[in-house]
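Fold description:
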Amino acid sequence: MLLSSSTAFQWRDIFTFIALMGCGAVCIEASRRLGMPAGVSRDLLSAWWLPVALLLPPVYALFAPIVLQILLQLRVRATVVYRRVFSSAAIGLAGCTASFVFHHLVDDPWALSRGSALPILYAVAAAVLFSLLNIALIAIAAHTADPESPWKEVLWDRESMRLDIVELCLGVTVSISCGVNLGLLLLALPPVVLLQRSLLHAQLQAAARTDAKTGLLNAAAWQREADTEIVRARRTGDTLALLIVDIDHFKRVNDAHGHLVGDQVLVGVAATLRGQLREYDVVGRFGGEEFVVLLPGADIDEARRVAERLRVRVGHMTIPVDETLVRVTISVGVALMSVHGDDLIDLLAAADLALYRAKELGRDRVCIPVVQPPPRPIADDTSP
């Protein structure tokens, strides 16, 4: 009420708001035609939210995300409503705060069109504030939903930072274009749509390579990357190890607590594996409760150490369920290139045999295949 009562509505502002929302609707329609990956995905809608926050009174910044989130829900992909509500609230609060700050620093926000350095600098600062607040609100919500997840995972990574910088630059550029002439949006719209389609295409490609439950590589993508690493190891003569990881008695978890808890266990084990491995190690979900890990440059001693570390870490992992904690253990089979096989099929077969032996010996352990000595040549009795 305070915002609306203190806002003098002008036709110029209303037309600008409608034009920017129209551009956002065009981008959303382009997303619908291309498709949008499930889960958390990135778009370039900030290119239209930011100009609303910079050029128009703060009340418009509250309503802009509501309009576009409704369109996303209806036209692109329906998801649980509370997520759309929270996204709208986070973006609206961040945009409204940035708008207040910018309007406090700049008497006439349309001065951006004159190209003066100070208003543009203030616009960039307000855009950074908008991004930081939005990220902070989303990170707090994500960490509240999963308190065990580290803050680093819910805040920023290098790729997200690049995308945020691109969005800020687009938002400020579109704001300046609007200030010069509202018709320039027709020139700004095609590049933004093209950039968004490129971004969504990359996200869809990444989604096709990953397992939906764990976020690790799926079996097909892991096999392609593993084949590439094996070819490289053959060429350079480097060592390479392969691990097959199996969750012990996983069926009991599903039978006792349900498949939703079983999915939480899969996610927890996947996160533990990823957190204990190097960036260039290749880890994926092989199917069911099995995971596969390729360790480039690892010899048999290092592979054993890594496998033992994974076993211990997973053994300490807990999944809270009602008033109890679910714990699981893993068994690991290890195979080394040039010792247990020279290609992916041989390595998988050797590691699988070692995994079978670990289960026979009682599970919750690491096993390595026994290397069979080469057969002795048969003596020719007919020779003199």
Confidence is low (pLDDT under 50) at residues 380-384.
